Amino acid sequence: EKGTNGKTLKSLQPKVGQRKKRFVYYTKKLPRYLRNQPNGNLLRAYSLGMELVELSSDEYKRIFGGDNGGSVVAPEEIDPPVPYKSLWVPQGAACGLAVPGAKLMAEEIVGFWSAKGNGMPLTVCLPGGTCASAMLLSREINKLVKGRDQRLKIENDAEQREDGEEGEEGEDEKELDIIVSVIPCVGDVTYAERQMKALDLSTGGNGIDDIPLIFKPWRNAFPRFGEPSPHVLKTFMEMKNDHGIFLDLLYGAAAWITLLQYLTSQRDSPVKGRQVMYVHSGGLEGVSSQLTRYRHKGLIDSSHLQS
């Protein structure tokens, strides 16, 4: 995993701690201030027994790097905590272990939109690091929608045969139009596509049919991942103060920079002419340490750290 305030770190450690298992987490070198005063997800993980292994940028790239953001297979260079009995979770949980969660989320979204969507087209938007959540969610939603539409067609054909004539389509029998799109927060559009294709192929897909639509950057570039940015901070504050939506600063606020620009324009995009559902990807536990970085960069004062 790249960062010490990553969502994977926050999600895995409580599960491992409950089972009294060792949890070894590989990351790049910590900033000095964070090493001296751990906070956010890092502090929480430490308190639950996480073992942190820091690597130089070169070491990290050599062991975990690759065109597709790493491998679903554990690198040979690292020793498993317990030989033959250890579980490898790559960066962003981009592996088959994430499929059950994607299925559950897809069921909730399809069930909700079937009942409440009134036949309107829906775009489900997610911020993307490895883009694993978007990839797997897209595939599971496509399966559910296809299965539902096939079932409704069979039922409708059977009713028509019984009635001897075409019946009117009821409100609850409208075909669902749900697509998934991803807003890259790490890397560019090409990188996101490569990661998703690799994950799809490694988990039983064909690398084509279920790839989510990818938002293009508004002005040729997305915010640089993890770097304190006045634009990211402005969006974070706007969403919190004006709309009551609390985002994280690594993924959420960065994604909403792009999303807001498209939502308030007529440019072609995955959301044009469609209803929008944004899937919050977590990370709020790391906001305090993220804001500390903004303070160290002189972008905010200490009063914001209590927000």
Concise structural overview:
The protein is 43% helix and 10% strand. The protein has 307 residues and is an alpha/beta fold. The protein is globular.
Can you walk through the features of this model?
- Helices cover 43% and strands 10% of the residues.
- It is of the alpha/beta class and 307 residues long.
- The strands form 2 sheets. A 4-stranded parallel beta sheet has the order 5-4-3-6.
- Strand 3, helix 6 (132-163) and strand 4 form a beta-alpha-beta unit.
- The longest helix has 32 residues, at 132-163.
- The mean pLDDT is 86.
Features:
307 residues; alpha/beta; two-stranded parallel ribbon; globular
Q: Order of strands side by side in the largest beta sheet? A: 5-4-3-6
| Gap from first CA to last CA | 28 Å
**Measured on Cα atoms, how large is the radius of gyration?**
22 Å
Share in helix: 40-55%
Mean pLDDT: 86
Low-pLDDT parts are: none
**Secondary structure tally, helices:** 10
SSE order = HEHHEHHEHEHEHHEH
What about the largest sheet?
4 strands, parallel
Number of strands: 6
Strand-residue proportion = 5-15%
Overall geometry comes to: globular
| Helix vs. strand class | alpha/beta
